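Minutes, project check-in

Agenda point 3 was the complex the collaborators sent over. CS summarized: two entities, 685 residues total, and the question is how they sit relative to each other. Sequences were read into the notes so everyone works from the same version.
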Amino acid sequence: MTAPAQPNTFKSGPDERGHFGIYGGRFVAETLMPLILDLEQAWSDAKADPAFHAELAELGKHYSGRPSPLYFAERMTAHLGGAKIYFKRDELNHTGSHKINNCLGQILLAKRMGKSRIIAETGAGQHGVAAATVSARFGFPCHVYMGAVDIERQAPNVFRMKLLGAEVNPVTSGSGTLKDAMNEALRDWVTNVRDTFYIIGTAAGPHPYPEMVRDFQSVIGEETKEQLQAAEGRLPDTVIACLGGGSNAIGLFHPFLDDRDVEIIGVEAGGKGVDTDEHCASLNAGRPGVLHGNRTYLLQDDDGQILEGHSISAGLDYPGIGPEHAFLRDSGRVTYVSATDAEALEAFQLCTQLEGIIPALEPSHALAHVMKIAPTKPKDHVIVMNMCGRGDKDVFTVAKHLGVDI
Amino acid sequence: MMDSRIERRFAALEAEGRAAMVAFVTAGDPDLETSQAILNGLPGAGADVIELGMPFSDPMAEGPPIQLSSERALSAGQTMAKTLDMVRAFRKGDGETPIVLMGYYNPIYSYGAETFLADAKAAGVDGLIIVDLPPEADDELCLPALDVGINFIRLATPTTDDKRLPAVLANTSGFVYYVSITGITGAATPDFSEVATAVSRIKGHTALPVVVGFGIKTADHAATVASRADGAVVGSALVNAVRDSLDADGKATERTVPAVLDLVALLAGGVRTARVDAA
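CS then shared the predicted structure for the full assembly.
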């Protein structure tokens, strides 16, 4: 069932039942199943429709500002004294993160399917803001489910969503974080299945979401390939991204999967350390299970009960991971490592000081790993890191951790 | 498979000319000992078929009553092994009342599907309802369950149209569980005339008994459903009875077991009079 060690391509998944190796699938209640099949059909029609791609590209260019720049981080490179470091600047997108790439794609599908109501889950609020934004732009009522704990630690994004006209529903069930928000969004969907489109924020959930979100985010890797070709005349040696559910990472990685010389590294949230109980490193410290519609690596106890993750970054605070990453982990094509809260905080500050870029805490994890490996590489080694979000939303959290009262 | 407890029970009820009272409780709620006492008392109170919930941390199709009941069971230390122990203990005193385990796939996947099926069969489990295993995933658990002689009971819903029904019914055995609403458990009350139409529609596709659940809260609801379907499932109302009987610290009291069993008796009364009233 698992992938052979050296398949001809790593890009063939998912199969017609939504499987990447043994991962993925469609583990949903019967009420949702007919809709999931409709969505699959609508997605398959849209993929084959040049008008759909043209509209999405137009919105990407004029509404969110694509292509995002590929930026040579000169002072970071000099400071670390090894590899040449580039940032893919997806934090410069409209709404401040890569999330808009996916939301624009899904809202166009919602429109094609004749749905009249949008729901979304959110952790840090970046996806909630992006979903609320596209809902405003296309005139849909939008209901965002957000854990009560996250609402407290991401107040600016909550207000932003409300300004955009979304209704933010606090989720108090379970531990009141991202996984509970996703449960509650699924409960809403099961109740309002006929008129509602669920914009899932990451490359996880029942098929076809992991594939669909990956395809909407792959613009990141495709642009990177072209831009680096223009800048360096070649492929990168290493590409790096952080992972919560894994949508920015799969977007960067996917176009490079069959370029076997490109080293690909995903960085999970190590929280207080993967040897403690407080982290979100499902690929490093979890095991396969079934949650939220797909089989993937999960943080769970011996009895199959899902555990709460911990991360300084609300956007990485999820006990699962997109199923394609689970497949890529087992196949060995991608290396998955982790960075702790403390390492991410250090990277956050260094980037701010050296590059004048305030990164979100999520890509600060990827940057923390860049800081570990760049000094060990030769000067002609090119690393591209996805700067998937900007850190404005995180300044309060960072201040608190630095003991500053603002 | 023709000789399963589920099939015998529905055949007997058909001979009696009445529908089944199907009672759902969560295993280990509010604690193992109290939950075992509730389980053991269900047949005497009038439950014809028992659905025993396997608690899960993320019950995506459940409303607050069953979510909280799962949380109570898990905080009291319930595990899959203890749930199977409860069935084993129940079987010492009752060899005929069917027990259907209901829940989500991950705790079973974690236990190991094959080991789980063997242990469940040995403990005296008759059927499984796994919310997040649609027919598209039949190779995961449904087909292996049929191989060891455990009925796999499928949910049909208002969104399961005539085109899809045959796929849903293909490997279903024991009975069909019709979900009366598009929604979660313990929330909206269904439109009972729509439910009756849906039950007739499903019966046009299968000879299996069709039971109805979701939103059945009172003896009147149960009676209405029982006049048109082969059984009425009550769950959220029963776990709410557990909740309402607890002390300030959330512990069981002497009222807990009778609170649930008295309510089952009341609902079973509704089910038993249904066909008489309807006639």
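Noted in discussion: The first helix of chain A runs from residue 33 to 47.
Follow-up: revisit at the next meeting once the mutant set is ready.
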